[in-house]
Amino acid sequence: MNAAPVLRRLGAEDGRAWLALMLAGVRELPDAFLSTEDELLALTPDDIHARIERSLLHGLFDGDRLVGVAGLNPGGPRAVRHRAEVGPFHILPEWRGRGLADRLMEAMVSEARTRGIAWLDLWVAAGNGRALAFYARHGFQRTGFRADAVRVDDVPCDDVLMARSLEAVAWGV
Question: N-acetyltransferase domain location, by residue (predicted)?
């Protein structure tokens, strides 16, 4: 393990590393990912490249090994282009507690600001206290709840919607 993994935007050449990290995440926290292991394994190299490009993925690399990833998903109709969704967001367990998630979140915020995005949104598994605390520490506030958001082996799992303003906007009621 290097002391400080290198942070950079993922490209097509990182497809295998991205897939390995996503598979590790799905195996550890199946309710935190929308894709199953089987769905990830069925992806073609073109599918993987498209996901990397669409999600503006940034990763932390220890040599050639991807140890953390975060995505920013802007787009959609003009009326909602001021918002982007954060995800996926995952750090391998042995790399947690070293400030890497903070570096990835800072990269997402920087990318969003560069693109003129005013709001970041994300969904997080309601039972993932560590992630909820992390996002709150980074200025995200709970704005909603989705019961039975995902089902893992037919077991319903709930999600919490969180949002963060990147502008000096007061939270309305």
Answer: 5-167
